[in-house]
Here is the input.
Amino acid sequence: MVETIQSGGTFPNPPSSALPLSDLESSEVTLDTFLSQVGGREVFGTLAELNPDAAVFVVDGDRKVLYWNEGAEQLLGYRADEALGNHCLKVNRCRRCMMGCDIKEKRLMRHAPLILYARNDEPIPLRKSGRAFFDEDGNFLGGIEVLRHENPVSNRAHVEMPALGPSRFPAEHPFFAELRGDAVMHPVLQACESMSAVDLPFLLSGPRGTGKERLAQAVHSKSHRRDKAFVSVDCARLLPKLQRSELFGHVKGAFVGAASERRGALLRADGGTLFLSEMDALASDTQDTLLQVLDRGEVTRLGSAKSEAVDVRLVMATCGSPRGDRGGHGGFAEEFVNRSSGITITLPSLRERRASIPRLLDQWIERHNRTHGRRIRHVDPEAMRALLQHDWPENVSELRAAVEYALSVCRGETLTLDDLPPELTLPQATDSDPDAGERRAIQAAVDASGGHLGEAAERLGISRPTLWRKRKRLGME
Here is the structure.
């Protein structure tokens, strides 16, 4: 027997217009009959999908995800296949949840304010409702949670960042603020503002960690498509056999393992922006099909004969040359280079813009103080010298991780050399260790999180499984 317990242990008295008990029992029998005929899972799924602007998910007694609706995919940035069966902390990144389970402790929550971090590390102000379920002995069996955006807009949210509708605009995306006043980045800022005013596809190039996805998000947030979805796909992480399914979607039974239908990235980005990171990792035939979809404005899911209309703006990104050898599984199709209208925005490495570091540091300290109620006012000259002299092979992402670490351990009003990650005071890595920068960024995040990998992944803007794989590859276990 499952018992639902309301906060306070009592239920409100029924209104005077409530049905007589006999009629209520009859109504319940009718509902039971309906549920037995249709199926409880089908009814629950339908209720969840009728609320596309809400993230609805179910956890069991071990807080493992049992159900994850499309609204959760769009708002939080994790696909159902990434969430199901995993601990909720892997996909529901909230500092409060890391300290305990709210619905288990409070039993019933209605519209409680919450700050949650999406997959791209953007903070999302939410309202959380949820109910816990217990057995007769008081053992926690699981719960249902519903998350809604604090400032809902009429349009749906999206996979990788919350929709920036009129209620949040013209608040400027942080990426633009980081560019302003930077002479080296001034051409990039001008190009961003120009691309925000038009609807052309464009290409981004630059080393890892320079902020290509954040630039694409910033342009999207200022474009006429800002009320629609921004969907990001890291093509380098897709297995060749899953590339077409991820982009175009599939129907149930389209291939072995396709237990349910899935909307591909193109349909999820309909009306908005599709960002393809490391697009040169796509197989040639997948690129060809993608070109056809963009030309026709229609996409056909795998296993289906029905075409669906789609309208997206394409933003492509690469760490290498877009005109490299195409081959069978890599390199850009020449048509995609042409499709970018000749517009390529190149982001320089941090080594080329060291003068930006003090200004970036000031902005991040101010944001940290505002968010966490801190009063860090100064940076010791020795600490600034170490930051300016470091090579930063992982560019801005590595700098951000190092500063996050320093701000977390700093206890006074001045950030000192001792607050910086130890790696910054050691000899610089040589070319014989090309992964040293990534290793330092991960270690800084882990140290700043007190060894808690879930929080470290949150700081790095990646999932915990991705952090685990990176640590294993880099020999950091």
